[in-house]
Amino acid sequence: MTTVYDNHGTPEPTQGERTTLVVAYVLDLIAPFTGYLFGIISVIISHIKAAETPSPLIRSHHRWLIRTFWWSLLWVGISSILLLILVGYLGLIAVTLWWYYRVIRGLIAYSNGQSMPG
Fold first, then answer.
1. 67 lies in which domain range?
2. Does residue 27 lie in a domain region?
3. How far is residue 118's CA from residue 110's CA, in Å, rounded to a whole number?
4. How many domains does the chain fold into?
5. d(CA 22, CA 100)
6. How far apart are CA 85 and CA 4, in angstroms?
7. How many angstroms separate the CA atoms of 102 and 39, rounded?
8. 108-117: average pLDDT
9. Residue 7's pLDDT band (boundaries 50, 70, 90)?
10. Residue 51, class by beta-carbon neighbours within 10 Å (0-12 exposed, 13-18 middle, 19+ buried)?
11. pLDDT band at 9; cut points 50, 70, 90
């Protein structure tokens, strides 16, 4: 398969790469309703695809999803410990809201053709 480049010499994402990214975002959107099982599937997809795509746009979004998953896991772990003193519930709610913020922000940026920071 031939790599297509834009006017700036940057590889254009293929339709398969675009579809895979949207699937990863959708999995993350429904992850809280599945006990974050779909989030695990999404982060596996993102780890694989971030390493193999030549497109900086697609790679930045997969890295965004990867960071969202791992930071969320850290904060869920801390919040779970804090459940012993009942403030953990607030932490778990905050993590879920932050999760949705990151996924929705990423989807909006992707629909506008923008890369994610970092």
1. 15-111
2. yes
3. 15
4. 1
5. 15
6. 55
7. 13
8. 95
9. very low
10. exposed
11. low
